[in-house]
Design goal:
Rossmann fold; binds nicotinamide-adenine-dinucleotide; globular; 271 residues; alpha/beta
């Protein structure tokens, strides 16, 4: 699994490991993933330092996995980044932000999936890609991230269909807000983003869940080779009804004077 040193990756690694899986912890930041490995102990754990934007590093991670455990049954393409500690508009974003976010969140998933697929096909295994509720929500002041997650959803859906009949399978993970550093921006890390999120979403959708709660849903979803894992479940109706909800919510956001004011304030702040 990639992004294993982060909040979600660490919790899922722990949960899968407790359920008897051998886990390969792949991350860019060795210190974070070291701490996760320490918690899991020496048995059935392999630690690999790799940057998901570099295909050759993922090929090496897969080779190390096969060397150590002899097979690969589940791939969790999970590493991801936000566009930074502050919200941005498409107009005010610094050059390079879009490329950086797409590089990790989308190309990183592509690289991970492509490197792993020959072995997943061989084992009749399962690929899980981490998207987000941002795959279908309006991505205002977070467009690079939302665009990357919508694209990851497409990879997961297409892959599942393409793998039908092979014995292997794939699914998409759609976390809502989870209490990890990536979500800080919407919960006080950036005052304008926090105000926008509370304006745009009702309270019950805004409550972040713990990575541990998410990890339990992932273990269940991996067990049944789920097409979609949506946590917390309160987002499921929004996802089902997205064809109707989205035009209405887009209209409301476009005509909400407070949203317009806060977005303009973001643009002013960036100047
Ligand atoms: N936290 C949330 O609210 C939330 C919601 C929806 C989706 N997600 C997604 O879940 C995934 C995990 O996020 P998290 O909340 O655990 O965040 P996190 O920041 O705690 O963890 C992300 C991990 O990815 C690693 N990483 C970043 N760039 C990398 C690279 N180039 N190569 C290898 N590893 C790299 C980081 O070192 C970190 O350990 C991300 O894809 C994120 O977009 C998170």
């Amino acid at each position: 699994m990639t992004g294993a040193g982060g909040g979600i990756g660490a919790a899922v690694a722990g949960a899968l490991h407790r359920n008897g899986a051998s886990v390969v912890l792949v991350d860019l930041k060795l210190s974070d993933v070291d701490a996760v490995a320490d918690r899991l102990g020496p048995d059935r754990v392999l630690l690999v330092h790799a940057d998901v934007t570099k295909r050759e590093q993922l090929d090496a991670a897969i080779a190390a996995t096969i060397d150590t455990f002899g097979r690969l049954d589940i791939v969790f393409a999970n590493a991801g980044i936000s566009s930074g500690p502050a919200a941005l508009t498409i107009r005010s974003a610094e050059d390079g932000v879009f490329e950086r976010v797409i590089g990790v969140n989308l190309l990183g998933v592509w690289n991970t999936v492509r490197a792993a697929l020959p072995h997943i096909l061989g084992s009749g295994g399962y690929v899980l890609v981490t998207s987000s509720t941002y795959a279908y929500l309006n991505g205002l002041v977070n467009a690079p991230y939302a665009a990357s997650k919508a694209a990851v959803e497409q990879i997961g859906r297409a892959l599942r269909t393409e793998l039908s009949g092979t014995g292997a399978s794939a699914g998409v993970l759609y976390p809502g807000w989870v209490a990890t550093p990536i979500a800080d921006i919407a919960f006080g890390g950036d005052a304008i983003a926090t105000s926008l999120v509370s304006r745009a979403f009702p309270g019950f959708l805004r409550r972040p869940i713990t990575p541990e709660k998410l990890s339990r849903a992932v273990v269940r979803g991996v067990g049944r080779r789920a097409p979609r894992i949506q946590v917390p479940g309160r987002w499921i109706p929004v996802s089902w009804l997205r064809g109707m909800v989205n035009p209405v919510s887009d209209f409301i956001l476009e005509h909400d004077s407070e949203v317009t004011r806060l977005t303009a304030e973001l643009d002013r702040r960036a100047r």
